[in-house]
Amino acid sequence: MLGQLPDPITMLVKRAGEVRIHTFVSAFTGNNIANATHIVESRNSLVLIDGQFLAPYARRFREYADSLGKPIDRLFLSHRHPDHWFGLGTAFRDVPVHALFETASFIKEHGEDSREDHWKLGDLAPEGIVVPQDIAEPGEYAIDGVRYVLDKVTETEVDFHLTVGLPELGVYFAQDLLYSGTHLYLTREMEHWTRVLEGLLASDYELFMPGHGLPADKTEVARNVEYLAAARQAVADGLTGDAFRDFLVGRYPERRCPGIFDIYLPRLFGAARDY
Ligand SMILES: [Zn+2]
What we know:
Elements: E1 9-16, E2 19-25, E3 36-41, E4 46-49, H1 55-67, E5 72-76, H2 82-91, E6 97-99, H3 101-117, E7 134-135, E8 139-143, E9 146-154, E10 160-166, E11 171-180, H4 190-201, E12 207-213, H5 218-236, H6 241-251, H7 259-268
Helix pairs in contact: 1-2, 4-5
This protein binds zinc ion.
Residues 81, 83-84, 176, 211-212 line the site of zinc ion.
């Protein structure tokens, strides 16, 4: 246990030659939302994807990375939602953080406000923020002999989202384009989000690493498409607030982490700030 928090799930997900993919998933229970962060371990170094949310999980994720005995080359931050970057201030201050220009700018401008807005977290929140200093540009890169394809995806779960593909391994770090086994964080961009997921279904990638939940295959990507279709229909039918939540919980009783509704419903149907 991490104080009152359940242990995370850690897993060696895939091995291909000298490259190993690891995942680290925080609790599914209580108010937790199964934040999933990942490690690409290659011959000489590590590349991390996202930095966890609550401080105890961020520290444990860092311990897991350090246990592999290789230096962290960099950490890719997928997007500006705090459940992906709060942990940077807790446990990754010494690591080069690469993010889209828009993500870095947002954290520079609003990061401290976001941290203060989360005062209820107490010492589960970081003591300070980390503004990403390295801008991730879409394109192809070789890092420690591994080919990485970076892409900028706009107007889905968030306005600007970085994705990381490893074509030779068939692995795609979708982060919050994909919610694996958990309820989705819905936005007003569900139609375009669906188009993006359909693109993934048509791609050669086979293993999809989500921002929430366990590693997934294309079946789960397709389930997310279906979930978005149901949610869009519910919006078209005029459901809002609790009725909208009850509809989705009733239709998808197997999905975990209903705490996500409390985060996004005031934003989807109201005027609440989105950070
Ligand atoms: Zn998230």
